[in-house]
Design brief:
Number of strands: 0
Strand content: under 5%
Order of helices and strands: HHH
Radius of gyration: 15 Å
Helix content: over 70%
Shape: elongated
Length: 64
């Protein structure tokens, strides 16, 4: 059985998505108890944007 086309490229793209999510979360963690929630709100917004791109599922755009 042959692997699906673009498997390696998709694996790489999802790795980048996961790294971006992890980075956003890690940037917010030290600021969870701050009186100013700006850093945490920014991280949540970043995560939401990344997940929106994933959920759109426009694979052709990711691979271009």
């Amino acid at each position: 059985m042959e692997p699906a086309p673009n498997t390696e490229a998709l694996d790489q793209q999802f790795k980048e998505f996961i790294q971006a999510l992890k980075s956003a979360v890690n940037s917010a963690m030290p600021h969870l108890k701050d009186s100013d929630p700006t850093s945490v709100d920014k991280a949540i917004t970043d995560c939401r944007e990344i997940l929106d791109v994933v959920m759109e599922g426009d694979v052709k755009e990711w691979l271009s």
